[in-house]
Specification:
alpha+beta; Immunoglobulin-like; five-stranded mixed beta sheet; 6 helices; Cytochrome c oxidase subunit 2; cytochrome-c oxidase activity; CcO_II
């Protein structure tokens, strides 16, 4: 009975640690182990979920390793006599059935809560951007703007120019995603989030998400779904600027300025700085070497 009591205490402590740490706020702490914190409010929630799950897994792993070490040392072979065999141990079976169920239930609870918060959309976002993916580049449309020609401001990438998606900080931004051909995936690593773009959904809820960016800067964006020959070079740049600079940028674009000139006007680099376009001459050089 003493052994069973000791085993139950160890298992209970492991469970308590796993459940407690899975709900901790670890943003910015050393417990992140180098994992990026993200630049959006939603990223903070996902950061806490992943780090909390990792810590819980580590606690469970340490408990299992400790039990393995204990059994190896305590019940090591001491002679040729066969140890006493135990056919059934109901308390132990109950413990190792209930504990995994509780761990899974807790992780499921936090995962669903985080997912609901991350995918939640508001009725009236501050900014709306339509993202159109196609093989193998991106188009960004600002539907609430209007140029002299009566069309909305639009940015389209080419094989020689990385498209720059300009967004404001500290405002709710809704991304409405659409694919012109195959499945693509909109991914900014600093969002700690990506969303597959399923063609044919006409910007339905499944192709919509919102973020609030808190950091200014230039961040690479990628297609995270294998979509064909040049998938690896289907990049874009997210440029987050102050709300005032964002309004000046859109005003300049509405007046007919190019992306480059409008960015320079708000004291931003006119070209992408986080990634570079695919160089066709490199492919030709490789082909000639073959």
């Amino acid at each position: 009975m003493a052994r069973r009591s000791k085993l139950a205490k160890v298992a209970g402590l492991g469970l308590l640690g796993a459940l407690t740490l899975s709900g901790c706020d670890v943003t910015g702490s050393w417990l992140s182990w180098g994992w990026p914190e993200g630049i959006t409010d939603q990223a903070e929630r996902m950061h806490d979920l992943w780090i909390g799950s990792t810590i819980a897994a580590l606690v469970v792993g340490i408990a299992v390793w400790a039990l393995i070490a204990y059994a190896t040392i305590r019940y090591r072979k001491r002679g040729d006599e066969l140890p006493r065999q135990t056919a059934y141990n109901l308390p132990l079976e109950v413990v190792y059935t209930i504990i995994p169920f509780l761990i899974i239930a807790v992780l499921f609870f936090f995962t669903v809560n985080t997912q609901n918060e991350v995918r939640d959309v508001s009725d009236d976002p501050d900014v709306t951007v339509q993202v159109n993916a196609f093989k193998w580049n991106w188009q960004f449309v600002y539907p609430e703007t209007e140029t002299a020609g009566g069309e909305a401001v639009s940015t389209v990438g080419t094989s020689t120019e990385i498209p720059i998606l300009v967004v404001p900080t500290d405002q709710t931004i809704r991304f409405e995603l659409n694919s012109a051909d195959v499945i693509h995936s909109f991914w900014v690593p600093e969002f700690l989030f990506k969303l597959d773009i399923i063609p044919g959904q006409d910007n339905g809820r499944d192709n919509v998400f919102e973020v609030t960016v808190r950091e200014e800067g230039a961040y690479v964006g990628r297609c995270a779904e294998l979509c064909g020959t040049y998938h690896a070079f289907m990049n874009f740049e997210l440029r987050s600027v102050s709300p005032e600079a964002y309004e000046d940028y859109l005003a300049a674009r509405e007046e007919g300025l190019s992306v480059y000139d409008a960015l320079v006007l708000i004291d931003e680099p006119g070209n992408a700085v986080s990634t570079q376009p695919f160089a066709p001459q490199r492919e030709q050089a490789v082909a000639s070497d073959d």
